[in-house]
Request: fold
Amino acid sequence: MNVVIIGAGNLATNLSFALRNAGFNIVQVYSRTYQSAELLANKLSASFTNNIKEIEPHADLYIASLSDDSLLDIIQQVNFSPSLLVHTSGSLPMDLLKKYAKDYGVIYPLQTFTKNKISDFKTIPICIEANNKDTEKKLIEISNKISTQIHLFNSDQRSKIHLAAVFACNFTNHMYTIAEEILQKENVSLDILKPLLKETLSNALISSPLKAQTGPAMRNDIKIMTKHKEMLTYNPLFEKIYSFVSESIYKNKLGK
Amino acid sequence: MNVVIIGAGNLATNLSFALRNAGFNIVQVYSRTYQSAELLANKLSASFTNNIKEIEPHADLYIASLSDDSLLDIIQQVNFSPSLLVHTSGSLPMDLLKKYAKDYGVIYPLQTFTKNKISDFKTIPICIEANNKDTEKKLIEISNKISTQIHLFNSDQRSKIHLAAVFACNFTNHMYTIAEEILQKENVSLDILKPLLKETLSNALISSPLKAQTGPAMRNDIKIMTKHKEMLTYNPLFEKIYSFVSESIYKNKLGK
Reply:
């Protein structure tokens, strides 16, 4: 199966390696940035271009892995109708592709990627959506070759899953960042929290995060929370985050 | 070394098991709740009481592992001067114990504990503070028998570390809870986020959370963030948390 990768970002890079390793033939990489297209294409022994008009018209699958903002800009410049076109966005609806191909859909891998570290796709959940049953079957077959975790979701469900992922991944990471900043002021390394971070995740996965909740907010320990907020006055946003997350923890406990 | 444990909560339970397994003799457990004292004492082959006046006066070490609110209430009822008295709180200052013992200090294990799962202390960082060098030496010797990660911090530093731990553990867990709630509305299990949660922690620990930050807020992708906030209108607190954490992520990126 011949595949064209439109995009050369974190997700495009990881997905194209997974496909190549599963036996797919990546024939071409497009990126607006010449160097990015070249870098990824060379690793995949593919051709490359930064001119959307030069995209190879006879491939079997076109994967548009672009930022949500630029997806339409780029896809509408393609000067032929791709045989099978998918995007990889959690939040964009599938129907965005309707005007640009007969068969289209979404392959959304639920993971955070960086170019520096190529992920093993086997256990990564892949959320699929397609515009008809035949296309759905095709996308399942393709995804099954790179992962064992295939899920079918519509665009609305996928956008909810993406929102959940923002809390679970992006916002969790920011809690780590705030913790690191507080420690840095005392010249203490984040390393000291490693066992706690691991145990927090482990406990949440073993039982459930709701049951695993502990801390001052859970006990409604006003005295400590007041002291903590005083310690955060140097950063009003951190103080607000402390207040609202604490309030939310306590309300959730009460089931409100 | 004979030890009396004052308290029978999550931390008291885990710490007393670690000490017992390291060869310490837990002679007595006190808890206001008779059943809690009995339950823990039986597991440790120790005596127990729910009457603070009945605490064994000749032990070598007294560990007060109580909620911050009740610590002083209980300690001031002890009708003798303990040979060596420590508390286990991250946020309470050491000097709270000054009036109640000649030698005193703090043993603060930086971990989240539950009674249902006895933790291996070996890699748990233990933060120590003591009122004099001899006591400090003693607390280091004791802690060295249960963990390889001993740190000396004063009360002010310890309270900052505790605040960092609230973000890294309690608040992170609440991000997981919100994610689970969003998924539950779609009848999707939190399991689908497991690989993402693991990777998020792994990336933050390998580089740093600041460098590992991704997501719509990091890209300042206003379109998605507006859509996400609309999806959260059913819970104004979640919406506020979304707004302030996103704002804080972007400000941090800009170094403000």
User: Anything to note?
Assistant: The mean pLDDT of chain B is 96. The CA atoms of residues 166 and 172 of chain B lie 8 Å apart.
